[in-house]
Write a structure and sequence with these properties.
This is Short-chain dehydrogenase. InterPro entries: NAD(P)-bd_dom_sf (IPR036291), SDR (IPR050259), SDR_fam (IPR002347). Belongs to the short-chain dehydrogenases/reductases (SDR) family. By secondary structure, the protein is of the alpha/beta class. It folds into 2 domains: 9-190 and 227-251, 3-Layer(aba) Sandwich (Rossmann fold), CATH 3.40.50; 193-224, no CATH class. It contains 8 helices and 9 strands. The strands form 2 sheets. The chain has a 7-stranded parallel sheet, with helices on both faces. A two-stranded antiparallel sheet has the order 5-7. Strand 2 (33-37), helix 2 and strand 3 (60-61) form a beta-alpha-beta unit.
């Protein structure tokens, strides 16, 4: 399948590791010029070096705190200065913060919304004019399956992630006329640093495959998802293969979600 991504330019937030990093690697392999951004410059450089070693292609790194609007604006400006265009934004940056309602401080509410909601808003806001100049673009907001069916003690994450879903749908309606597609992915149990640390601490005698199956017993596909599997779906959504897909949400959860 031809994805039509060669020579396009993509920004991926939170791309020094995890889903963001794997998505960056996959897009580079498809011929995309990629901008990595996260707060830590050292980890960004490590990620950039890995990508170059694997693909032979250099990426641009821009240390960015997306909770600050001026940083988001600078991220877009440096991308345009370096590559001259912008086609794709993957709003991936975020952390898991799950607590009972009464234990969440006002400061934690604000920090979570600044990172997961306003970070996406500001990055997208400054990207849109440049997407219009090249005739369109693709935006993917990375959220969580729990946003659709929030369990107890899941705050503030589920609220900010649910806001991301509403943002996705509303933006898709506004930007469709500009050929800018906006979609979201809802992440379930995917291999991460946190899960790997738990595996090595609690069940190091098991192989990853054995541990994945043990942890994933309640998941219809019977295992923890691989990070690459999430990256593959995001790559499809930003590609020309998904040219008639906008305003939708794709669960990457092995069938675990309870909502349509």
């Amino acid at each position: 399948m031809e994805l039509g991504l060669n020579e396009k330019v993509a920004i991926i937030t939170g791309s020094s590791k995890g889903i963001g990093y794997y998505t960056a690697m996959q897009l580079v392999k498809e011929g995309v010029n990629v901008v990595l951004c996260a707060r830590g410059e050292k980890q960004l450089q490590v990620a950039a070096d890995y990508i170059k070693n694997e693909t032979g292609k250099e990426v641009l790194i821009v240390p960015t705190d997306i909770t600050k609007e001026k940083d988001c604006q600078r991220l877009i400006e440096q991308t345009i200065t370096h590559y001259g265009r912008l086609d794709i934004v993957v709003n991936n940056a975020g952390t898991a913060s799950a607590n009972p309602f009464e234990s969440v401080s006002s400061e934690l509410w604000q920090a979570d919304l600044d990172l997961k909601v306003f970070g996406a808003i500001h990055c997208t806001k400054y990207a849109i004019p440049h997407m219009r100049k090249v005739g369109g673009g693709a935006i993917v907001n990375v959220t969580a399956v729990m946003a659709k069916t929030p369990p107890a003690s899941s705050l503030p994450t589920t609220v900010s992630r649910a806001a991301g879903l509403a943002l996705t749908k509303a933006m898709s309606k506004d930007l469709g006329k500009d050929n800018i597609r906006v979609n979201a992915v809802c992440i379930g149990l995917i291999r991460s640093d946190q899960i790997e640390k738990k595996w090595k601490k609690e069940a190091s005698q098991l192989s990853w495959e054995e541990y994945s199956q043990q942890v994933g017993q309640t998941i219809p596909l019977g295992r923890v998802g691989d990070t690459q599997e999430a990256a593959n779906v995001i790559t499809f959504l930003v590609s020309e293969a998904a040219s008639y897909v906008t305003g939708t949400t794709v669960n990457i959860d092995g069938g675990a979600g309870h909502a349509l």
